[in-house]
Amino acid sequence: MAFVKDMLRMWAHSWKRFISIAMITLLGVAVLTGIYAGCRDAFRSTDRFFDAQGLHDVQVLSTAGLSNGDIAALRKVNGVAKVQAEWSQEVTFDLDGRKSATMQEIGTDGIDQPYLQEGRMPKKAGEIAVTRKFIRDSGKRIGSRLTVTPESASSDTSDTNGADGTNETNGTDEAPSFPTRLTIVGVVLDPRNLSNPDGYSAMTSFRSTATTDYTFFAPSDGVTGTLYTSATLLVKGAAAESTFDESYENTVKQVTDRIDGTVKTDRQNARRQELLDAGNKKIVDARAEADKKFADAQSQIDANRQQFNQQVDQIVSMQAGAAAAGAAANGANAGAAAAAGATTPQLDETTRETMRETIIAASPELTQAKQQLDQAQSQLNEQKASTEQTLKTKENELKTSIPQVRWYVQDRQSLGGFSALKSDLDSIQSLGNAFPIVFLLVAVMMSLTAMARMVEEDRSLIGTYVGLGYGRLAVASRYLLFALLACLIGGGLGLIAGFLGIPAFLLVVLQGMYVMPGLRLEYDWLYGSLGIALFVVGVLAATIYACVQEMRQTPAALMRPKAPRAGSRILLERIRPVWNRIGFLGKVTARNIFRFKSRLIMTVGGVAGCTALIVCGLAINDTVADLGIKQYRDIYQYDLMVVSDDSDASAMRTKVASDGRVTSSLDVRIESGDLTVAGSGDGDSGKAGSSGSESIQLVAVPEKHLSDLGEMVTLQPVSSGILGTSGVGKTGSLKLDDDGVIVAQSAASALGVKAGSKVRLTNGDGVQATAKVGAVNRNLIGSDVYVSETYYAKLFDSKDAKNTKNSKSSEDSEALTWNAMLAKLSGSDASQTDYAESLEEDSSVMKAVSCAHMADSFKFDLMGAVVALIVALAGGLALVVLFTLANTNVSERVREMATLKVLGFFDREVHHYVNREMMILTVMGVILGLPLGRLVGGMLTMALNMPSLYFEVEVKPLSYVIAAVATMAFALLVQLFVNPVLDRIDPISSLKSVE
Fold first, then answer.
1. Cβ neighbours of residue 914 under 8 Å, at least 6 residues apart?
2. 337: left (phi over 0), alpha (psi -120 to 50) or beta
3. pLDDT (tens digit per residue) in 928-959
4. Which of 229, 452, 514, 596 has the fewest CB atoms in 10 Å of its CB?
5. Nearest CA to 559 among 424, 464, 660, 488?
6. CA-CA distance, 948 to 930, in Å (whole number)?
7. How far apart are alpha carbons 107 and 405 in whole angstroms?
C-alpha cells in the first residue's frame, strides 16, 4: 500500500509532465483520426445514398442507339443484377438567353433514381422535376410552366454517330421524344452529380457544345421512341462493397470485362448489320416505289400519245376521203362517184405516215402537242436512268456510309461529380495520413525527454526500492502506468476531437461543396483503438528505454547522486578570436547548449518538426492561393473565351467583332471529352496495369494558325521533378504540330502521362481514338488538350477535315466548325468582366469567360479549411513541445538555478539566463524547420491529385516569417509559464545534500 501511495504522490508531483504527454497524445490522435473520420463519414454517407438511389455501376452507350436486342443481350451477361433501358433527349429553352437541358426519363427499374428534396415526383406526361441549380438560376418555383424545343438532328456533326443519324437509315427506329410543354412539380438531387449549386464549384469548367446546362427528370408517360439512349446496369454484389474501395472496382471490372469481351463486339456487329439491312430495304423499297411511279407516268404518256395519234389519224382519213370523192366527181357517171364516196380509200403505211407528218407540220397546235409528248418521254427516260444510277450508287456506298457501331462501357468513374468527390476526399485523406507521422515522432521524442528526466529524478528512490527487494518491473510500472494513463486520457480526448470535432468541421466545409443527404458522424472502434495504441506503444517504448537506461545500474549506484557530466571543450572554444570576445554568461550558455547533446537534439528536433508543420500548412495555402493568378494571368494570355453552339458560331464571331473590344483573336473548336490512360506506366493504353481517366477540354486549332496559339497560351514544356517540383522549359519553346497532342500538366500529373505516351481521347461526339502525347504543357487549372486540325481529322476520321493542310485558309475549310474564340481585349479588368457578362446575354453566345474575373474569384474552400486546421494543430503541438522542453530543462537544473540565486543573481537575471538558452535552441529549430517544411510541403502536394488541378508548390516569404514568428511567439508564451517556476525555487532546500 505504501508503494502505491508513494506512486500516486509521485504522479501528483509530476502533473506537468502528465499534462504534456496527454496533450501531445491528444493532438496526435486527433490528427490521426480526425481527417480520416471526416472523409470516412463522407464516404459512407455517400455510399449509402448511392445504394438507396440505385446509382448505376455500369453504363453502356452506343453511337447508333441501343435496341431491345442490345438490352436483352446485356441482361444475359454473368454478374449483371439488373438492366434499365433509358431514354433522354436534349432540348433548348429561353432563360436570359438560349439554354439547354437534358430530358431524362425516370427509370422504372430503380436505377439512377433522383432524390426528392421538395414537392413531389412527376407522374403524368408534361410533369418534370428539376434540380436546385435550375431553380436558383431561373427564379422559377414548383408549379411554374416551361416550354422547350427539341434539338434538331441537324446539329449533330455526324449523320451516323447517334440515334438521330440512324433514323435516316432505319425507318423502323424512332429516337426518344418527350413532351415540350412542361410543369415543374418537384425539386430533386441528381445522384450522378452531388455538386452543391450554392457552394464552391470548379469555376474553370465552362460548358462546351457537348454538355447541357441542366437536367430535367420526366416520367415514362408521354415518352415515345424505340431506340434507347443508354442502358444502366447494377452488378451483383457491388452494393455490398463500398463504392470508393478497390474491392468495388474489382467487382465491377469483372462485369465490364465480360461486356467488352463478348457482348460488345457481337452487338456492335449485329447493330451495324441491322443498319445495313435497313438501308438495303430502303433502297429496295425506293426502287419499287420509283418503278411504280415511272410505270404510272409511262402509262399516262402512252395514253396521251394514243389520243394524239387518233386525232391525227382521223384528220388523215378525212383528207383521204375528200381526195377520193373529188376524183370520182370527174368520172364517167354518178354511180361510180357515189360508190367511191361511200368507202374510205385504203392507204399504204408509207403514204399514211407521210400524210401524218404533213398534217402535223401544217398545224402549229399538233406540232406543239407532239413536242410536248416527246419531251415528256425524254424526261421520263432520263429520270429512270438517273434514279437507277442513284440507287446503284447508294447500294455501292451503303457499307462505307454506315460506320462501325461503337459501344462505350463506363463505370462510375466516368461521372464527373463522382470522380470529383472521390478525388477531393482521397486528397484530403492523404494529408491526414501524412501529418500524424510527424506528430507521432514528436510525441515519442517529448515522451522520451520527459520520462527520462522523471526516472532520473527518482534514481535514488528507485535504488531504494530495488534494494528493499522490489522487482525492477514493479518499480518500472510506476512510470509505465504513469505514461499509459496519460496516453489513455489524452487519447480518449483525442478520439472525441477526432471523431466529433474535426469531422464536424470538415463536413461543414464539404457540405458547402457537395450535397450529401443522410450525413452522420460515426465512430470506428478499430481505427480509434489502433490510433490510441499507436501512441501508447510509442510513448511506452520511450518510457521503457528510459527505465532500462537507469535500472541497469546497481541499487548502490542508483542511491548515490549521479556524477556530473565530465567537462569538455566545445567546437566554438577552439575558434579563439570568437570565443575570447564572448562574455562569461555567453560562454556558459554556449557550453550548456552544445555539451548536453540529447537536450539539444530533442529541443531543436521538436521545434523544427512543429515549425515544419506550420510551414507545410502555409505552403499548401500559398500554393492554392496562387493557382488562379498563375493560370489566368501567366499561362492564359488571352482575356476572353467565348463559346457558342455550332449553328451560332458565325453569328458569335460577328457579334464579338462588331463590338470593337478585341485587339487580337484566335478561332478554335472546344469540345468536352475524356483522356484515358491504361498501361504500366508508359501510358501505352494497350498494356495492362493501372488506369485512369480525366475530363478534358479538347481544343482544336486551325492548321494555318498553329503558330498563333503561343500568343494566346503560354506554351512551356514541363518534366516531372521531385518533392513537388517540376522542370519548366523555356517559354515559347513548345510548338503544336500534326504529330501529337499537347496535354495540360494538371491532367498529365494525375494520370502519369509524359511526352511520348499513348492516350485514348474521347471527343465531344463520344468518338474515341488513340493519340500520341507530343508534349506536356505547364498548366495548373483545367485539363486542356490542344490538337491541330489535321491531327484531329486523323484521330477522329473527319472526312471533311482531310487534306485541309493545303487549303487557302482555315475559314474556307469545312473541316470543323470553329465554335469558340480566344481573344485579347482592351480596357480594365472590371470592364472585361462586364463585357463577358454582357456577351452571355446574347442568343448566339453559349458561354463567355473572363480571365480577369476567374483570376480574382478562384478559391478552394476545402483545402483552405484543412490547411487552417493543420496550422492550428501544428501551433498547438509547438506550444506543448516548448512547454514540455522548458519544464524539463528547469527540472534538470534546479540545483544550478539555486546556486545562481545564492551567488546573488536576481530573478530577472535567472530568467534571462535560462530563457536565453531556450530561445537560442528555438531559433536553431526554426532555422532547421523552415526548409524542412518546404520539403514536406512539396512531398504532400505531390499526393494531392485532384481533377483538373496541379499544385505547383509556392511558399511566400511571408509564410516563412509567419511560421518563424509564430514559433518564437509560442516560445515567449511558454516563458510566462516557466518564469514563476524559476521564482519558486528555494536555494536552501534545492542545495541540500542527498546523503
1. 889, 890, 893, 897, 978, 982
2. alpha
3. 999 988 888 777 776 665 667 788 888 889 99
4. 596
5. 464
6. 30
7. 25
